[in-house]
Amino acid sequence: MQDCYLIDAVRTGRGRLSRPKKGFIGEFAEIHPTSLGAMLVDAILGRNPSVPPEKVEDLIYSTTIAVKEQAQDIARWIVLASKLPVTTSGVHLNRFCSGSLQASAFANASIRVGDYDVVLAGGGEHMNRVPLGSDRNDPARLAITDAIREKYKIVPQGMSAEIISEKYGISQEEINAFSVRSQQKAHAATEAGKFKNEIIPIAYTDQDGNPQVLDRDSNIKPGTTAEKINALPRPFKEGGVIHAAASSGICDGSSMALWVSGDAAKEFGLKPRARILSNANWGVNPTEMLDGVIPGTRLALKRAGLTLDQIDRFEINEAFASVPLAWMKTLGIPEEKVNVNGGAIAMGHPLGATGGILLATMLNELEREDLRYGLITLCAAQGMSGTMIIERLS
Length: 394
Ligand SMILES: CC(C)(COP(=O)(O)OP(=O)(O)OC[C@H]1O[C@@H](n2cnc3c(N)ncnc32)[C@H](O)[C@@H]1OP(=O)(O)O)[C@@H](O)C(=O)NCCC(=O)NCCS
Known about the structure:
transferase; Acetyl-CoA acetyltransferase; alpha/beta; 6-stranded mixed β-sheet
């Protein structure tokens, strides 16, 4: 088996959902998802000029709502829209919210067995142009069958977040406090410039026709208080605990990582920044859906031969506040090491992009703080989860 190294990981800022009634158009609303992905490809090639574009053999790219502008093999369209040559292939994958983490896991596995030397892996979601649910417009033509519905009660993810809160005894106070902390940490990290090395500034035109650049996550609400958010409606369950401020925000974004073999790193004079120690995918009951991160984390640790206390930083996707709270409580993970720069509750969750965003954030955090091991985990729809442990190398 050959070595595989992470050389770079970049992302866009998260662009907001348009609110036509409020006269606001999302930053990326007019940018095609293929173009957004191509901008990141060009940016990562630009940051690593010693890698000849013709040596990039494949782009593995995830989207979750794989219809309209995110349908077909969007990865290949991104290749053709970018500065990559026609010789670079492209493959689209869908593992819902953990899709772009899976893209990197597949890149790593393929390089290690010798199938590639240089691969790009990432994902994107344009929730303005391809809204949540637009892959379910025709109820008579869905992949799910009546037989599956008889076996499992399929509910919206927000409902699963309510089920998780009840199952793990997570209180309203804990949910509100966690949601406020996510906003505070994201705001502090942004103001401190902690995302600068990972975010590629993207030019756009605002609703007044003025040229602008998005170089940050635009959804953060630093004025959030527990009192204010407690008064918000509970959209998923009457009398429930999950409100909009405890849910990941709907937004647009993209992520991209450059993976190379040991030989390619040497040949192109690249500095290996990290390597993958383990990956774990885990399925749970699709009704509860969101707690696969718990067994997934256990398996990833076992595979890496590490214990929880050896992990320096954790990034868990804040799909809903009950998910990280249940995971921390069950596994005994100290919150001081978790999402130290905030998470999707504050910054948004562009589904297919988020795994790669967390990878970029983790890599930069380990480097900045001179730490070694990072664990990234995301719950995913239909009762799945993806978990990865990386080791910083330089
Ligand atoms: C929860 C959800 C339905 C809310 O959608 P929404 O109503 O469009 O959300 P908004 O951002 O408009 O927030 C609703 C209200 O809460 C307010 N709000 C949200 N966060 C807040 C905060 N931190 N502090 C104060 N108010 C807040 C908004 O300002 C808005 O108020 P308004 O109606 O007066 O304008 C949506 O965000 C969602 O479905 N999230 C989960 C996405 C998902 O399932 N992802 C995949 C699985 S992880």
